[in-house]
Automatic annotation (TrEMBL):
One Pfam family per UniProt: NB-ARC
GO BP term, pick one: defense response to other organism
Domain Disease resistance protein winged helix: 450-516
Keyword field: Nucleotide-binding, Plant defense, Repeat
InterPro entries assigned to the protein according to its UniProt record, in alphabetical order: Apaf_helical, Disease_R_plants, LRR_dom_sf, LRR_R13L4/SHOC2-like, NB-ARC, P-loop_NTPase, RX-like_CC, Rx_N
Disease resistance N-terminal domain span: 5-87
Lineage start: Eukaryota, Viridiplantae, Streptophyta, Embryophyta, Tracheophyta
Descriptive protein name: AAA+ ATPase domain-containing protein
Metal-binding listed as a keyword: no
Segment forming the signal sequence: none
Disease resistance R13L4/SHOC-2-like LRR domain location: 585-873
Length: 897
């Protein structure tokens, strides 16, 4: 694990030498030497880690090297603070020059130069009082001290024979070049346990009117969640329970109020919840909402029967044939949940099922190499039918040559007992096999208290942390997604949810999340603060760089236990932000954590917090000059201070959510943050973004404000949301001319008022990468040649209040269209017609066409259709008989991003 830290720090030192050459001035030589010596040590680290178990000498050597790597990173980050001055002194990245304007080298010249600067402006540095601030006077000496420490541990290697021990290593090393993958496997259907599924479907469809609890139990990694998900997504189940289906993961540390809120949200009940303050209030509300309906509730991962007993009264026994599915590891919990309970013990896979699953992971369904089949079956047998172990083993062997298979087999034999599987050791082996970049990504999973993670957020965090490095042909976001793909490929992460054809949420098995937490704590990679647990009473280790705050109390004591050199601060404490002035509580973080790169204090659930932010974000935010990621979702901020311009490394600003209609004004200084990549919120007024050449995401811009933006330099914009509001002039026409410059645009959403229309779509012909288009307004004309100028379009949503022409002839020719959503009024049309061979790849169709009485689909059209939803406004719509059996798509598949 330490190899990941050392490798990362070496990369950062290299970045400083390239990007901050002028800033480093007289200490450039020292930094280069430090980077070189760390790089030499890096060669021994991985092998040393493999040998440290049971060897205290090597364990201490590895720990010392890790601490030096951390300290090296601190030195440079704090040095940048010491020379930064937002009042006219040395600024971020500014050159250190002498009176004649020429750069000097050497520690002595540097000290003379800095003394000259300080004597001219002694009040220029606002960070002088930071507790552990490294002065510009001794930066060179500090680096020299680090180099001496490196020399000492190098000497200890020779003195105690550590290098000889390390060199006598296991010959298991292989190339760690990440494999780029472009698709996500649907892991929930890797093995079809038809006998098990069918028996449980019988119970779900039983005519017994009483509410029935179906309890699925078995050991961790056996596939309880996968089985429950398969039942939940079954087409016949969706039809039987209509839209009254909900899924919630419970976990060991659930909070009843939070659990009830998540259940209510999962059922998609829209009634305002502001007046529901207590658990009893929420339980009664849920009971009333379900009283007249047949419902299906899945409670995944229950650890004790008290969880169900505390929820039981919220689910009415209404004699409608309602069902509750519960998954648990505990047989005692499964058997004692309810008087009306069907208990199912999930079995292990048979040898043939095990081999089938393994082949899908290790060979991607191709024929197994005869030379490898014997080896593979031998290893699969050791997994004893446990799906998680088999999937991880398959991922570990993916893309290896026969010699690599033999190495894994030898390691596996050392890691497992002859008569059973030690899953933890197998998972540990899979983790150790990762490249250092993938290790860092996997360790980052330990931040999140929930097993389900938002993919976009996760990718942006990885980029902000520096865990995804740009290449010649891949952006940082692309590389981060490649890392995520590879972890999915190895079964260390699972797919959870797709929206509009894209992976939107991923899931981490709790055993793997436990592994990530264990490894992260061993490495002092993360400190989790939860005041409800006594283990948090001790102070955090000095080398810990990332803080995750889980505590559900209003106390802010975590501030005093968090390391001041933290790089990441992720707050999951909703109660803390709910009480009192949020700005007042966050302000200490702006000064205490001076080298912070990531600050995520959201989302703050307005349903439970009732937060009202005190207007504009505090000017104190400008002190965090290293900040790359700022998320204050649902915070109701109305303005950003001018000091935001100090944050020249900022990549993401996320101010989305909040009270409906909450809008944010941007200062002109936003336009100076050249590294800004994602600007998320509801922005009004002037948009000073014209010079942001690195901007990838803008969500969302006011219609008339966007019209004034010169888009010539926004060459990297990939996702754009534009919205009209009550200030927008009536009868306005949206021109796509402002979009024509955006050559890399992939996602475009434009929401107009009912009396606003769209000009010709022809201007989009230059946006050849556009794959997702969503338009809402009064009228839009669809050219017949849409397949020519939008050849990559995969998802299209049209909400139009006046359509005079059948859109199907134009749309059916778009070759890659897979999702189509039409909400339209057709006063002069009665029929939509799809010709034979039209819509060759269409998978999902949602139709809400007021006025249409027939959907005519010729034989051969829509051959790939798997989801069809006709909204209630046209219940008597005439459709072909073959389409009537197609179920509606899952709710989340076409839900807005």
């Amino acid at each position: 694990m330490v190899d990941a830290v050392v490798s990362f720090v070496v990369e950062r030192l290299g970045d400083y030498l390239i990007q901050e050459a002028k800033f480093l001035g007289g200490v450039r030589d020292e930094v280069e030497s430090l980077a070189k010596e760390l790089r030499l040590m890096q060669c021994f680290v991985k092998d040393a880690e493999a040998k440290q178990a049971g060897n205290d000498l090597i364990r201490h050597w590895v720990s010392d090297l890790r601490d030096i790597a951390y300290d090296a990173e601190d030195v440079l980050d704090k040095y940048m603070l010491s020379v930064h001055d937002d009042k006219g002194g040395a600024s971020l990245g500014s050159p250190m020059v002498d009176g004649e304007g020429t750069s000097r080298k050497g520690l002595g010249s540097l000290v003379i130069n800095i003394r000259r600067r300080l004597s001219s402006n002694r009040e220029s540095n606002p960070y002088r009082s930071a507790k552990k601030e490294i002065s510009v006077y001794n930066i060179g000496k500090t680096i020299q001290a680090l180099r001496k420490r490196l020399a000492d541990i190098d000497s200890s290697c020779e003195r105690y024979g550590i290098k000889n021990i390390i060199s006598d290593k296991m010959d298991v090393e292989q190339s760690k070049k990440p494999i780029r993958v472009t698709s996500f496997g649907d892991e929930d259907h890797l093995v079809d346990l038809k006998d098990v599924t069918d028996s449980l479907l019988v119970k779900l469809f039983d005519k017994q009117p009483k509410r029935l609890v179906i309890s699925i139990y078995g050991m961790g990694g056996l596939g309880k969640t996968t089985l429950a998900k398969k039942l939940y997504s079954d087409n016949d189940v969706n039809r039987r329970f209509h839209r009254f289906c909900a899924w919630v993961s419970v976990s060991q540390d659930y909070k009843l109020k939070d659990l009830l809120l998540r259940i209510i949200k999962s059922f998609n009940f829209k009634t305002a919840l502001e007046g529901l303050e207590t658990e009893d209030d929420l339980g009664r509300y849920l009971h009333r909402s379900l009283q007249e309906h047949k419902y299906l509730m899945v409670l995944d991962d229950i650890w004790d029967k008290e969880a169900w007993l505390s929820l039981k009264s919220a689910f009415p026994e209404n004699m409608n044939g309602s069902r509750v599915i519960i998954t648990t590891r505990n047989k005692g919990v499964a058997e004692r949940l309810d008087g009306q309970t069907y208990v199912h013990e999930l079995r292990f896979l048979t040898p043939e099922e095990s081999w089938q699953l393994f082949c899908k992971k290790a060979f991607h369904d191709s024929i197994a190499n005869k030379g490898l089949e014997k080896l593979g079956r031998e290893m699969v047998e050791k997994c004893r039918g446990l799906p998680l172990a088999i999937a991880v083993l398959g991922g570990l062997l993916l893309h290896r040559d026969p010699e690599g298979w033999c190495s894994v087999r030898d390691d596996l034999w050392r890691c497992v007992r002859s008569d059973s599987t030690d899953v933890a050791r197998l998972l540990d082996l899979s983790f150790n096999d990762l490249s250092y970049e993938l290790k860092l990504c996997f360790l980052y999973l330990s931040h999140f208290p929930d097993c389900i993670i938002d993919v976009k957020k996760f990718i942006r965090l990885l980029v902000a942390e520096g865990f995804a490095r740009q290449t010649d042909d891949r952006t940082m976001e692309d590389v981060a997604r490649d890392h995520l793909d590879e972890l999915i490929n190895r079964s260390l992460i699972q797919t959870e949810e797709r929206r509009w054809g894209r992976l939107s949420k991923c899931r981490v098995h709790d055993l793997l999340r436990d592994l990530a937490i264990e490894k992260a704590k061993d490495l002092n990679f993360i400190h989790i603060w939860d005041e409800s647990k006594s283990s948090n009473s001790s102070s955090v280790m000095p080398s810990c760089r990332r803080q995750a705050i889980y505590s559900d109390t209003s106390s802010d004591s975590w501030l005093h236990h968090s390391n001041e050199v933290s790089r990441s601060l992720l707050l999951f404490n909703r109660k803390w932000v709910a009480e009192g002035d949020v700005q007042q509580k966050l302000r200490p973080a702006f000064t205490r954590f001076s080298v912070l790169r990531v600050l995520d204090a959201g989302p703050m659930d307005a349903l439970t917090t009732g937060i009202v932010w005190d207007g504009e974000l505090s000017e104190q935010i400008g002190k965090l000059i290293h900040l790359r990621y700022l998320s204050l979702r649902d915070s109701n901020i109305t303005g950003i201070p001018r000091s935001i311009g100090n944050l020249q490394r900022l990549q993401t600003i996320d101010l989305s959510g909040g009270t409906i209609g909450m809008e944010v004004k941007l200062p002109i200084e936003i336009g100076t943050i050249k590294e800004l990549r994602h600007l998320i919120g509801k922005f009004i007024g002037n948009l000073p973004i014209e010079n942001l050449e690195n901007l990838r995401t803008l969500k969302s811009a006011e219609f008339e404000s966007w019209e004034k933006v010169n888009t010539a330099k926004l060459v990297n914009l990939q996702e754009l949301h534009i919205e009209a509001d009550e200030r927008t002039q009536e009868n306005k026409v949206f021109s796509f001319e402002s979009i024509a410059n955006l050559k890399r645009l992939q996602f475009l959403s434009v929401k107009l008022l009912d009396d606003n229309s769209f000009a010709s779509l022809q201007s989009l012909s230059q946006c050849e990468r556009l794959v997702d288009l969503r338009l809402s307004g009064r009228m839009v004309k669809l050219p017949e040649d849409m397949d020519v100028f939008l050849p990559r379009l995969g998802c299209l949503s049209l909400t139009v209040s006046n359509l005079e022409k059948d859109p199907m002839p134009a749309l059916e020719r778009v070759p890659l269209l897979t999702i189509l959503e039409l909400h339209i009024k057709c006063p002069r049309l009665k029929k939509f017609c799809c010709s034979a061979e039209g819509f060759p790849l269409l998978g999902i169709l949602q139709l809400d066409a007021n006025g249409i009485v027939e959907l005519q689909v010729e034989e051969g059209a829509m051959p790939m259709l798997r989801g069809l939803k006709i909204l209630p406004e046209i219940p008597k719509l005439k459709i072909p008989e073959r389409l009537r059996s197609i179920p509606p798509p899952a709710e989340y598949e076409c839900e807005d991003l």
